[in-house]
Specification:
Spore Coat Polysaccharide Biosynthesis Protein SpsA, Chain A; alpha/beta; transferase; 9-stranded mixed beta sheet; 11 helices
Length: 299
């Protein structure tokens, strides 16, 4: 099989209003909510860089200036830390200085994830690219995105990430019908996709999570995808079309993920991420784990 070019660019949609976290997100982008000592979006950007995607485009909206400021240089703060000899904090903020790697485009209207991805067309061009949803944090020890890039380079088309969820939760996700792929226990071929089905209508309990590696042909499909559920242009609808497309741009495979994923767009998922990352933190972890044991024993 002819190998396709490997994805080199990452797109992170981050134009949402974060209404589930109000009032905390009234003036602060939800992507900037801290998970221990780093904003949530920094974990996602770092995942892209660790997966050899050096070119990152963030799709922003109104009141998202803090995102751009975070990844920019802050010479005055650096100067203060240098004078104090605070090398640890200086190194930490310089880790976030990705001004040369980061690009931004504004989504003028919140018309859905499919529309947000379409805003990346000019930047991405005619090559495969990854989409990472800022709400989903994948633990750094789990190489989901790198695996997806490898699968896409081998099989072409597009690749999504699936994860088993309880049957009572399927109505909160896009859900896939799949066929097995011989010789790969973590890869399946997607035959159909349904956006937020009723429990009795779901084709499986394999839910789409926030990682995609897409063929650039998805842009043409999105151009002709009408608004779907919620009156928005759904990326799931475009992927459903591609799953039935026999052309070079078509075909959808999936990597079934069995690692650690945190939905930080949900309050409980966000708190779980904070607790787990704090428990693993090199400076805080030991004290955090001791406190958790003490707290658990109170009840």
């Amino acid at each position: 099989m002819t190998r396709t070019p490997r994805a080199r660019k990452a797109v992170i949609p981050a134009a949402g209003l974060g209404t589930r976290f109000l009032p905390a997100t009234k003036a602060m982008p939800k992507e900037m909510l801290p998970v221990v000592d780093r904003p949530a979006i920094e974990y996602v950007v770092q995942e892209a860089l660790d997966s050899q995607l050096p070119d990152v485009l963030v799709i922003t909206g109104r009141n998202k200036r803090a995102l751009e400021d975070h990844f920019d240089r802050h010479p005055a703060l650096e100067s203060v830390l240098e004078r104090k000899g605070d090398d640890a904090r200086l190194a930490a903020i310089r880790q976030s200085d990705l001004v040369g790697d980061m690009h931004y485009v504004r989504q003028g209207e919140a018309l859905g994830l499919g529309h947000a991805v379409g805003c990346a067309r000019r930047h991405v061009g005619d090559e495969p690219f990854a989409v990472l949803l800022g709400d989903d944090i994948i633990h750094h020890e789990d190489d989901l995105l790198q695996r997806m890039i490898d699968v896409q380079a081998e099989k072409g088309g597009s690749v999504i990430a699936l994860m088993e969820v309880p049957e009572e939760s399927v109505s909160s996700y896009g859900v896939a019908a799949v066929d097995a792929v011989p010789g790969a226990d973590d890869v399946v071929r997607v035959t159909d996709l349904v956006e937020k089905p009723a429990r009795q209508d779901a084709p499986s309990n394999l839910a789409i999570i926030g990682r995609y590696v897409l063929h650039p042909g998805v842009f043409d499909v999105l151009d002709h995808t009408p608004p779907g559920r919620g009156g928005e242009i759904q990326l799931t609808d475009a992927l459903q079309s591609l799953a039935h497309d026999d052309s070079e741009r078509g075909g959808v495979h999936a990597v079934v993920f069995r690692g650690r994923r945190f939905d930080t767009g949900d309050k409980l998922g966000y708190l779980q991420a904070v607790v787990e990352f704090a428990a693993e933190h090199p400076q805080l972890g030991e004290d955090m784990r001791a406190w958790l044991k003490e707290y658990a024993n109170r009840g």
